[in-house]
Write a structure and sequence with these properties.
Length: 230
C-alpha cells in the first residue's frame, strides 16, 4: 500500500469534502472550510527535502506526528488570524524532531540538534539568514516558552506540536476535521512511542529541558491523557 503523501492535492481534496458539510456543525473554530486550503504544502525543493528527511530518519509514527503538527498549527493559526510563511512553517514542522532520531542526534538537546540540521539543509538551498532564522527559532522554541515577540511560525509550530502531543487546544478543532487529518496520518501508537523517545532523551541529557518536561512538568501523564484513542 502506498503511503499517503501530504501535498496540495491531498489537502485540497480534504477541504473540498469538508466544504460540503454544514459549516456551523463542522468547524467549532468558525474557520470557513475554504481556509483549509491553507493546508496546501509549498511545492519547493526545500519543502520536498524536508519531507524526505523527515520520512527517511523518523519512524512512521514520528513522521506522522510532524505532518499532523503542521495541520493543527495551520488550523489553529487560521482561527487566531495569524499570517505566516507557509514554506517556513512546513519545513519547521517536518524537521522539528529530527534530533530525536539516531541519524541526527548529535548529543545536544534534541531541539538544538533539530535546528542545526534544518539550518544546514536550508543553507544548501540558498535561503537567506532571516528566512533560515524563522525555521531555526521556531524549532528551538517549540520546547520553550513562545512570547508575543516571537514569530508567527514559532507560535504555530508550538500550537501544532502541543495539540498533537498533549492535546492542548486539540478539542477546539471540530471532531470531523480532526478525523480527516488523523485518517491521512494515523497516530500509530504515538503516545507510547513518543514517551519512550522523551524518556531516553531525558535520561541521557539531564541538562536539557526535556528532562524537566519528563521529571518535573508531568509530560508523560499529559501524553497519556491526550484526547486521542490510543
Amino acid at each position: 500500500m502506498t503511503e499517503p503523501r501530504l501535498d496540495t492535492a491531498t489537502f485540497r481534496a480534504v477541504a473540498h469534502s469538508l466544504s460540503r458539510s454544514d459549516t456551523a456543525e463542522l468547524l467549532s473554530l468558525c474557520v470557513d472550510p475554504r481556509d483549509l486550503e491553507n493546508l496546501s504544502v509549498p511545492d519547493s525543493a526545500a519543502a520536498r527535502e524536508a519531507e524526505d528527511l523527515c520520512r527517511e530518519a523518523s519512524s512512521e509514527s514520528l513522521a506522522n506526528h510532524c505532518f499532523r503538527s503542521f495541520a493543527w498549527g495551520v488550523l489553529l493559526g487560521a482561527a487566531d488570524d495569524y499570517t505566516y510563511d507557509s514554506e517556513a512553517l512546513y519545513v519547521a514542522s517536518m524537521l522539528h524532531d529530527l534530533g530525536l532520531t539516531p541519524a541526527f542526534d548529535r548529543g545536544g538537546c534534541f531541539e538544538d540538534d533539530s535546528a542545526t540540521a534544518a539550518s544546514e539543509m536550508l543553507v544548501r538551498h540558498g535561503w537567506d539568514g532571516a528566512h533560515v532564522s524563522l525555521v531555526v527559532d521556531a524549532i528551538q522554541l517549540h520546547m520553550h516558552d513562545v512570547t508575543a515577540d516571537d514569530s508567527s511560525e514559532a507560535h504555530l509550530l508550538a500550537f501544532g506540536t502541543s495539540a498533537d502531543v498533549s492535546g492542548r487546544r486539540a478539542l477546539e478543532i471540530d471532531a470531523s476535521t480532526r478525523q480527516a487529518i488523523l485518517a491521512l496520518y494515523p497516530r500509530l501508537d504515538f503516545k507510547r512511542h513518543f514517551s519512550q523517545l522523551f524518556v531516553d532523551q531525558a535520561a541521557r541529557k539531564p541538562r536539557c529541558v526535556v528532562h524537566r518536561y519528563v521529571y518535573e512538568l508531568g509530560l508523560l501523564e499529559l501524553i497519556a491523557n491526550a484526547p486521542y484513542p490510543e
